[in-house]
Amino acid sequence: MKKLDTFEKEILDAYEKGELKSTFPSKTKLAKFKAAATATFLKEKRVNIRLSTPDLMDIQARALEEGMPYQTLIASVLHKFVSGRLVESASSLTRHSTRTPQKRGDG
Q1: H/E stretch holding 36
Q2: Are 4 and 12 a contacting pair, CB within 8 Å?
Q3: How many whole angstroms separate alpha carbon 70 and alpha carbon 72?
Q4: Interacting residues of 63 by C-beta distance below 8 A, sequence separation 6+
Q5: Cα 11 to Cα 17: distance, rounded to the nearest angstrom
Q6: How far apart are CA 28 and CA 13, in angstroms?
Q7: Nearest to 39 by CA among 79, 84, 85
Q8: What share of the chain is helix, strand, coil (3-state, %, to 5)?
Q9: d(Cα 34, Cα 29) in Å, to the nearest integer?
Q10: Helix axes 53-66, 70-82, angle to 10 degrees
Q11: What is the C-alpha separation between 60 and 65, in angstroms, rounded?
Q12: What is the three-class DSSP state of 47?
């Protein structure tokens, strides 16, 4: 098990002391959340696209890093882009699509 940081320790301590209480959303908020989830995840259209092999490899690697199927990652990125919420962050992975070919030596 991983070591807890200070914030996580505070939460665990509060839980163990019984200081945390479960709350439930109102029926109105729950209906709003359900409608948003349905609208967000309703997949009624199929789209076929062509990608370069290096780009697909990078997408699959990022999806693995995020713990999700690569098609789900693509759909998520597109949804965030069209809703204006796309924020790029650096990945720890080496990108295949930006690698420069190695030059061959003559000897």
Answers
A1: helix 27-41
A2: yes
A3: 5
A4: 69, 70, 72, 73
A5: 10
A6: 33
A7: 79
A8: 50, 0, 50
A9: 9
A10: 90
A11: 9
A12: coil
Q: How far apart are CA 51 and CA 38, in angstroms?
A: 29
Structure-block tokens of residue 88: 């790029």
Whole-model pTM over 0.90: no
Beta strands per DSSP E along the chain: none
* Type of residue at 4: L
Residue 58, token pair as written in the block? 């990078």
Q: For the segment 35-84, what is each residue's pLDDT rounded down to a tens digit? A: 777 776 677 788 899 999 999 999 999 999 988 889 988 988 888 888 88
Map tokens 């029926």 to a residue. 27
Taking CB atoms within 8 Å and a gap of at least 24, the contacts of 57-61 are 57/96, 57/97, 58/93, 58/95, 58/96, 58/97, 61/93, 61/96
62: its two tokens: 């990022």
Amino acid 102: pLDDT: 47
